[in-house]
Amino acid sequence: MLSSESLHPPMYSRSNSQASVDSTSMEDFWCEVENIKEITEERQDDQAVLEVKPPDEGELEAEWLHDVGLSTLISGSEEEDGEALLSTLTRTQAAAVQKRYNTYTQTMRKKNKHQVRDVRDIFGPTFEAIPVSPAMTNGIQLPVHKPASSCLECEFEKDNQSVTEELSFEVSFSESITVIPKHREWHSNQSFKKEESVLPNFMIRKSRFGLTEVGDLSLDDMKKIRYLSLIELTAFYDALGIELKRNRTERVKGRENGLFGVPLTILLESDQKKIPGIKVPLIFQKLLLKLEETGLETEGILRVPGSASRVKSLRQEIETKFEEDTFDWNQVRNNDAAGLLKMFIRELPSPLFTVEYLPAFITLVEKIPKVKLQLQALHLLIMLLPDASRDAAKVLLQFLKKVVSNEGKNKMTLWNVSMIVAPNLFVYKGKRANQEEMLAAATTARIVRLLIKYQDILWMVPNFLISQVRKMNEAAMNNTKRQLMFDKGVRRLLRRKTMERERPERTESDIPEGVIRVHAPLHSKVSMAIQLNNQTKVKDILARFYCENSHEPSESMKMQIQSLHEIGGNIGQHCLDPDAYMLDVYHANPQAEWVIKPKIS
């Protein structure tokens, strides 16, 4: 956190010297806060926060169990998905669930509420609780593994070196922590020094399953990814000895029509009537496109404010003319467009990076001492975002990366951009901007830097979470099969089917081991059996179809935007990485269908 001296805007005069820049490193932030204050004072009544009674600890844990898909533990109902999810948890994840459930049950017993289930009824009598260490404030202690050397501790110390460090997505982040680093306390002059030059570089270690982007999975599977991400994030904070706090979701009364101050979901519902499948509101896309086309090389773009009166007038005109596509974007100056963009972000009833997890973002900066660990926590927080917020955040960060890449012309460094954007993302219109909240927003300037620098990593779904989704789906299918076996009619049908199988016929289901049938409905050759080996990659299969259809001139263009999809079995739908090894994917999901079709962008 900032010191008391840092709570007040410093006196400054801009200079080209590095020393002067460092001494006024908070200048851009406080200027932006003042600009926001001037603009928002005129529009205070547009949105109002509906007051909510502060929850007790039991209610918070009940909300947590609901948010991770385990409300069945509270209701007592036999919900298949809840059982399936529990069956996939790692040891640290199970400990996190156990801890929250124990807190909930203790609170309910004190209130003399309804009977609650014993934790052993949920995890089974053989579940071994992780021992409690009094030295750890959160009550969780990981098993101690003794590595041959202190390479983990050396790895923690590499954060400030200009080297590229490798990241693995194969093992749970919380399970990977075997050494608990000491917490680093922020000091007023240390936390806001120019640091983008020392942020380390990371690269993802690509496994034989390749990489998976957020949009490569079905909506149902992404819902399960969210459940698991919240459990994993909680286990991760527990493993570091840090309390993971959440704000209760605030109910903010926003506008139900128009463009500014309207929830992203409502904007998308309207836009999807025009463009089915669109993921980012058209007005947001247009504001970003305007700035990308004409503003990337404008000196001080984002930092130098446009005219407040012009921005207000342009906003009103856009509100009335945008839907009819009669608004003249050529009249909008670059700095005014930047003002409109920041206004749009700031006035969202629910911020892009949800207020519910704002304490987790703040704690990430204050309590987690190493960049790699901060990145892992941030990664899980991104997985938790609602679809609409995450998709909008992604295009915003892509734009900000382009702004920074034009630093030579627009004079906007990663540091400058983070200081300008942070107040708009985290001091938003739905909350009162008191000193405490502005303090939190200043802290999140570092989060913005991490988001911009590591965005290519943050939108990749960790493979260990995908593996857990597969296990969860398999467990749910097995539960369904067991229930069906109790139905007499189903048993009779199965007996009849068994008798029919005694008269074997050669069908497509008799494809030999290691051979897959790939379907390509957009090609002239719509189906092909392909023998897999250890070196067969997804891109080899795509190339095979390209060769078979090379006589069709239009197909070469189609192949550039088409991907191989894994559908069914233990996954809903999964767009595969061209570098994934198909035999490994096949063994992970032998019941899947394999279809070549356009990737949903």
Protein described:
By secondary structure, this protein is α/β, with parallel strands linked by helices. Among the domains are: 255-348, Phosphatidylinositol 3-kinase, Chain A; 508-601, Ubiquitin-like (UB roll), CATH 3.10.20. The protein is built from 27 helices and 9 strands. The protein has helices at 18-23, 27-40, 57-67, 72-75, 80-86, 91-110, 119-123, 151-156, 173-176, 219-239, 264-274, 282-294, 308-321, 334-346, 358-367, 371-384, 387-405, 407-410, 414-426, 435-443, 445-453, 455-458, 463-484, 488-501, 538-548, 555-560, 582-588, and strands at 48-50, 164-168, 201-205, 251-253, 515-519, 527-531, 562-568, 571-575, 593-598. The strands form 3 sheets. Strands 6-5-9-7-8 form a 5-stranded mixed β-sheet. It has a two-stranded antiparallel sheet with strand order 1-4. A two-stranded parallel sheet has the order 2-3. β2, α9 (173-176) and β3 (201-205) form a beta-alpha-beta unit. α3 (57-67) crosses α6 (91-110) and α10 runs antiparallel to α16. It is globular. The relative contact order is 0.12. Mean pLDDT is 78; it is low at 1-24, 45-52, 125-161, 186-192, 428-433, 503-509 and 555-559.
